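ok here's Trehalose 6-phosphate phosphatase, seq below lol
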Amino acid sequence: MDMKSSHASLLTDPVPVNKSRLRMHSSLLGYSQQDSPLSPGKCSRSNSRKSTGSVDDVRSNGWLDAMKASSPPRKKLLKGSSAQVASIDFDIEDYFSWMLEYPSALDSFEKIIDLAKNKKIAMFLDYDGTLSPIVDDPDCAFMSESMRTTVRSVAKYFPTAIISGRSRDKVFDLVKLTELYYAGSHGMDIIGPISSTLCKSHPDCVKSTDQEGNEITLFQPAREFLPMIDEVFRTLVEITKDIEGAKVENHKFCASVHYRNVEETNWTTIGQRVHDVLKDYPRLRSTHGRKVLEVRPVIDWNKGKAVEFLLESLGLTDSNDVLPLYIGDDTTDEDAFKVLRESNHGYGILVSSVRKESNAFFSLRDPNEVMKFLQLLVNWKRQERKHGKK
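and the structure came out like this:
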């Protein structure tokens, strides 16, 4: 099977046209009628619906603890450093102790290459915090041109997919590479090389055509939730208007409530309001990411399932000569790490500058180290090709 075929035609979702498809991202819709599109933090925040629950709810059910646990610690400056010196957000001794259990993928590169000998590497990548830095405004999480060049080179040698919590359209707009496969909304919106046989076995596959008339295949196991997610998104925008720094995004099959720019004293309030909204939607649940609450459908699907589906789509599921690698930084990536660990069929690489318990095998500190690791993989494969190896 040609793993690189038809990438350019697999980019457009033939769902009914809405404002998002007309280049106005749905994350702006909640403000479009009364708020002007000013810079972050400048939107009017009034007339919000107040929380009706008790703030004890989010404390007793563990939400507040989870919100704190999933949020990176404040940065510390190295002793003797000036304001111009880059700060770090981890304790060095503690981090290096942790790395004994999750060794650096850079330091372990030769070991990883030994594991990959005579095997096809399939590369899976998260976006935020992996290919781009974590920033205050998620709309500004741009990957560098050097990272884009590196990822393009990776896709030249290995089947490569990005699995993101963002909508598929949004992550493609940020990455801008047609050589890749894309899975948005934590894997609930996949566009890729899905065969007719596989499509028939999955009722959530949809055959359609894009705007240029090319045949495309979508896999969307949560299609029935689209109206519900839109409704909840609008409610979340309304109830967080008066919380300074809060930002709500519609990722099509899930909605995100960011509290990265919210004062910590207001985290309980924002958690309680989201909690109250979900009381009316038993088919939705909330998961915790890095200073974000993600509202998602209650279905048996996650990034791990997306990895399995993409491997099956590529004809790489039951092959002993395949080595899947997944690089990610967030809680939702743990589902993918777990699938690879439990199947003994690949390795997860956690991107983190702090100690975390994980299902990954290896670690990288930040997107810069991710880029270095990917460049090493490309250089290794080029050398193999140079010496006549496939």
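fwiw Residues 1-52, 74-89 have pLDDT under 50 and may be disordered. kinda neat tbh
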